[in-house]
Amino acid sequence: MSVLNLVSNRDARFYQQQTKVLTRQGVECTTSTPPGDHFTDGDVDRKPLDYVRYFPKVVRESFSGYDLVHANYGLTAPMALAQARLPVVLSLWGSDLMGEYGWLSKRCAHHCDAVIVMSDEMARELGEPCYVIPHGIDTERFAPRPTAEARAQVGWDPDARHVLFPYPTTHEVKDHPRAMKIVERANEQVGPDVELQVVSGVAHAEVPTYMNAADALLLTSRREGSPNSVKEAMSCNLPVVSTDVGDVRERMDGVSPATVSDDDDDLVDGLVDVLEEPRHSNGREAVRDISLERMGERIRGVYETVL
């Protein structure tokens, strides 16, 4: 099976994991991106004209012996549909459905042969028949390790309390200022040794060490689809305190300690609970069904159904 993948950001970690696992399962994956740069100095730099210039490129590429086109992210869907030869599978990642261009994603989804979303919330927002397939995680890499060992490896104070914020502070949707306020309020109750650790730009292979060094992961996003950081933290048995976005509440069902709320008081209380008595969660048991291999099998199944 040969698939032409259209993607706005070929460096997205979960996209790279997706193509690697599909390749292992016998799918030949080719990646095509619009002209221009997706990011420059941390900001999206691609212009609308770059997407317009992408149309003829995709049409030409569709004649190269592929079995189908997989549009990854809603902004690539119009180009995928512009070629009339091959069936189209569309994967929506979250902000492309819930954000500014959600109307475009919905309109294109109606004309695709199959649509994949990451959560039940996204399926409800789409309002079209679709497959719910959350991004998988590497459960072998993201596994529990002794906290003291991980903390020594990353150089964190062994006696402090550490709250992990694994996102760039410049991404407004992640709402770093809100995270700082929540940690400041928790610090007033727990003591002066609570530190908000912003971890961004490190190699993915190093992220599990930071997760095992932390006492909690804090997610303050305004919107999400199925945030990988939450699932990866769960796989490390790291307690999660999160806003009620995407599929986080569904993932946290039966997991303890965990807090999911849009109320800052609840988020502070949940963080204080974990920091006053640091302990692991039982999150790993809840993510066993979303390994990378299982995700690949399900996406390949969509391909086969379409074909």
Describe this protein's structure.
The protein has helices at residues 13-24, 48-61, 77-82, 95-98, 102-109, 120-126, 147-154, 176-190, 207-213, 228-235, 248-251, 264-276, 283-286, 292-306; strands at 2-7, 28-32, 39-40, 43-44, 68-72, 88-91, 114-117, 131-132, 161-165, 194-198, 216-219, 240-242, 258-260. With 307 residues, the chain is α/β, with parallel strands linked by helices. The radius of gyration is 20 Å and the shape is elongated.
This entry's quaternary arrangement is single chain
Number of helices: 14
Shape descriptor: elongated
Unreliable residue runs: none
State mean pLDDT (0 to 100 scale).
93
**Spatial strand arrangement across the major sheet:** 2-1-5-6-7-8
Q: From N to C, what is the helix and strand string?
A: EHEEEHEHEHHEHEHEHEHEHEHEHHH
Strand composition percent: 15-25%
Q: Find the structural class using helix and strand composition.
A: alpha/beta
Query: How widely separated are the two ends?
Result: 10 Å
Count of strand segments: 13
Biggest β-sheet: count, sense, barrel? 6 strands, parallel
Determine Rg (CA atoms, Å): 20 Å
State the gist of this model:
It contains 14 helices and 13 strands. With 307 residues, the chain is an alpha/beta fold.
